[in-house]
Amino acid sequence: MTHPSLSTRDLTIRFGGHVAVNRVTCDFRPGELTVIVGPNGAGKTTYFNMISGQLVPTEGQVLKDGVDLTRMPASLRARHGVGRAFQLTNLFPRLSVLENIRLAVQAQTGDGRRFFRPVGKFTELTARAERYLEATKLDRVAHLPASALPHGDQRKLEVALLMAMEPDIYMFDEPTAGMSHDHAPDVLELIAEIKHDKSKTVLLVEHKMDVVRRLADRIIVLHNGELIADGAPGEVMDSQLVRDVYLGNAGEMA
Predict the structure, then answer these.
(1) Residue-number span of the structural domain to which 238 is assigned
(2) Minimal CB count within 10 Å: which of 60, 73, 185, 201?
(3) 98 and 173, same structural domain?
(4) Residue 216 dihedral angles phi and psi, to the nearest 5°
(5) Same domain, 254 and 192
(6) Domain end among 147, 166, 185
């Protein structure tokens, strides 16, 4: 079996007397897309935030290829290959679509801290950015400000920014949230293409079961901050325990 690219060990966080995530141990491997599900308040996004560095756990560890990331800020984790897209778009609204992606390319190459650079280098960065525009089908709006894009295209731009950072670990938090039925398939197709790269590990928080069925190689289920199921999609969805959890919380599991 492939060695895990990312692991959590007894990951726990408390807010006052409330344990939001309780001793979650899990391995994630290259070439695998894992969907994290659970009813509202289950701890999904909190767990995600500890992996990506938005929250520091009370106890436990986050490891990437054996390197302890637990106390690293999100910016440093990005340099170690952990990339995350958020529910809310995180763009430079006044910059063009191309400029947004070019900044991500510069950050990935380490060239972003250099104010003056050769013209040839600038051209090379632009060419790389244009490749990500083409891959995400945003080349037609390259020179529009990001704020002028419809919500669906802004989400696609977030995926393009993440791809430009060339992470080993891709993390998506409800990637189709707020999107129309017409635009959601475009983003899901981009994630499916990333999934086909067997050197990449993909984690997805999602509550829409049609999205889970379409993308998941594996599902883990959190409930009251604890890991209660982990396995192949069919096996997890057929679990009586999981069904009871969802039905008991008026969730969707059909």
Answers:
(1) 1-81+169-254
(2) 73
(3) no
(4) -70, 135
(5) yes
(6) 166
Which of these, 161, 185, 183, 200, lies nearest to 33 by C-alpha position? 200
Contact 97, 132 (CB under 8 A): no
User: What percent of the chain has a predicted confidence (pLDDT) above 90?
Assistant: 63
Is residue 50 a contact partner of residue 235, using CB atoms and an 8 Å limit?
Answer: no
Question: Strands 169-173, 201-205: parallel, antiparallel or unpaired by DSSP?
Answer: parallel
Q: Kindly report, residue by residue over 217-241, the tens digit of the pLDDT.
A: 999 999 999 999 999 999 998 999 9
* DSSP symbols for 190-234: HHHHHHT-TT-EEEEE---HHHHHHH-SEEEEEETTEEEEEE-HH
Task: Return the half-sphere exposure (C-beta side, CA atoms, 13 A cut-off) of residue 72.
Answer: 19
Q: Which regions of 52-200 does DSSP assign to beta strands (E)?
A: 59-64, 67-68, 82-85, 169-173
Q: Is residue 86 part of a domain?
A: no
Report DSSP letters for 22-81, one per residue: EEEEEEE-TT-EEEEE-STTSSHHHHHHHHHTSS--SEEEEEETTEE-TT--HHHHHHTT
Question: Could you read off the pLDDT of 24-76 as tens digits, one per residue?
Answer: 999 999 999 999 999 989 999 999 999 999 999 999 999 999 999 999 999 89
Q: Phi and psi (nearest 5°) for 158?
A: -60, -40
Note whether 253 and 243 are within 8 A (CB): yes
Mean pLDDT of 135-148: 93
Residue 109: its pLDDT value, please?
77
Picking from 138, 166, 194, the residue at the C-terminal end of a domain is 166
CATH number for the domain including 174?
3.40.50.300
Question: Which of residues 158 and 21 earns the better pLDDT score?
Answer: 21
